[in-house]
Prior knowledge:
- The protein is mainly β.
- It is built from no helices and eleven strands.
- Strands 2, 4, 5, 6, 9, 10 and 11 form a seven-stranded mixed sheet that branches. Strands 1-3-8-7 form a four-stranded antiparallel sheet, with no helix packed on it.
- The N and C termini lie far apart (about 40 Å).
Amino acid sequence: QVQVLESGGGLVQPGGSLRLSCAASGNIRRLSSMGWFRQAPGKQRELVASIDVASGSGSTYIADSVKGRFTISRDNAKIAVYLQMNSLKPEDTAVYFCHGDGVWHLSGQYYREVWGQGTTVTVSS
């Protein structure tokens, strides 16, 4: 069973920082990309950042709303990604979900996408 597990959420004051981590596991043969989505109460889930994994290019996408404050990176020794969040604002408060896209298991089974359980980020005084 392929899965992604995220961690690192918590409560921080405005202007503070958090680092989210996500690791994929389950005998993965190939994975296209990983990223972070977030969802605030009453709002649509939105893509925050993503990074290419399969190509090795490390190409990234950062949403305009967090550009200049958030960065995404990967660990080449593991199938893992990180989201460094700086200068946090109250509007960043949400549940953040790790996402894996285009996953191939060693058995040959294909997973269109895999979602983590979510980790809560709360930015408040």
